[in-house]
Amino acid sequence: MKYSQALKIYILLMVLSLIFYPFVASSYGILPAVGAALLGVMISMHIFLIIGLWRKNHTFVDTAWGLSFIIVAHVTFWMQPTHTAVQWIVLAMVTLWGLRLFTHIMLRTVGAKEDPRYQQMREKMEAGKHALLTTYLRIYVAQGFLAWIIAAPVVFINTRGQEGVTPFYEIGIAIWLIGFAFEVVGDKQLKTFLAVKQNQGQIMTGGLWKYSRHPNYFGEASLWWGIFIIALGFQGGWIFFFGPLLITFLLLFISGVPLAESLIRGLPGFENYKRSTSMFIPWFPRK
Questions:
Q1: How many CB atoms lie within 10 A of CB 223?
Q2: Within a domain: residue 77?
Q3: What domain range is 194 assigned to?
Q4: What percent of the chain lies above the pLDDT cut of 70?
Q5: Which segment of 62-71, 128-137, 145-154 scores lowest on mean pLDDT?
Q6: Which of these, 9, 28, 182, 199, is most buried using a 10 Å CB contact count?
Q7: Whole-Å CA distances, 114 to 95, 111, 120, 135, 233
Q8: Any domain includes 281
Q9: How many domains does one find in the chain?
Q10: What is d(CA 64, CA 16) in angstroms, rounded to the nearest whole number?
Q11: Whole-prediction pTM
């Protein structure tokens, strides 16, 4: 799929989700929680907007990504008068994942140059008539809405006042653990590889990267599908499929795989690596 086609589909998915989510929330009686989650995320995004403008480095918005999900999870969790065991588990899962991602990106961002994506976007927008407004909407508001939509299954789980069907819990938690492991280990292996001077300009093909060209992105998508499966334990949970679907599409066609591969496409051995290694779902290398 061409990037231009994927972008159109992505925008369509975003628009449909922005319309569909409040409608579903209203029909399930959870609109106050959904609204509070959105407010919390947007407050955070405005704080990071100020930081980005002050530092002239919008890469800091990436550190807000993990925090946005923590905000959604905690705001909607603590709005409830009582809490079930599965709600505590999901809260812990989202908090662990969000803090790990926040720390990982923050350590990579502090003291580094602005990400080329945001630098090009900022320079292009600053040359326009409404630079600040464009920056605000495209970088901060869009990411805030995206995190809010993806976290929809978490909000649904937090607003259920009773226990659901436990087999879904076990399957969902198991998938989340697998996804989390792939993301953490994949990021660690890549960081260790790039820290070696001799590996500069080389492609990481060992560890999990032997079985998937993007094991960390596979992990992130998987853990959100895991949380969605937990939501299936409650009546009507299936309707929140748009959350994991959106993050999977984003990683596969917009800001995950396409961007990462554009950075390594010209490196030696990329074509052989591409032919022999699964793009996303881990599998044995092809000969």
A1: 25
A2: yes
A3: 3-276
A4: 93
A5: 128-137
A6: 182
A7: 27, 9, 10, 15, 43
A8: no
A9: 1
A10: 24
A11: 0.93
Determine the average pLDDT of the residues in 6-29: 93
Burial class (CB in 10 A: 0-12, 13-18, 19+), 205: middle
User: What single-letter amino acid sits at 218?
Assistant: F
In this structure, are residues 100 and 185 in contact, taking their beta carbons and an 8 Å threshold? no
Token pair 């231009």 is found at 4
One-letter amino acid for residue 5 of the chain: Q
In-domain check, residue 286: no
84 belongs to a structural domain: yes
The residue assigned the tokens 């998937």 is 212
* Cβ 66 vs Cβ 144: under 8 Å: no
DSSP string for residues in the chain: --HHHHHHHHHHHHHHHHHHHHHHHHHTT-HHHHHHHHHHHHHHHHHHHHHHHHHT-GGGGGHHHHHHHHHHHHHHHHTSSS--HHHHHHHHHHHHHHHHHHHHHHHHHTTSPPPHHHHHHHHHHHTSTTHHHHHIIIIIIHHHHHHHHHTHHHHHHHT--S---HHHHHHHHHHHHHHHHHHHHHHHHHHHHHTSGGGTT----SGGGGT-S-HHHHHHHHHHHHHHHHHTTSTTGGGGGHHHHHHHHHHHHTSSHHHHHHHHTTSTTHHHHHHHS-SSS--PPP-
pLDDT, tens only, 209-268: 999 999 999 999 999 999 999 999 999 999 999 999 999 999 999 988 998 898 898 899
Per-residue pLDDT reduced to its tens digit, 226-243: 999 999 999 999 999 999
pLDDT, tens only, 108-118: 877 667 666 66
Residues 6+ away with beta carbon under 8 Å from 205: 269, 273, 277
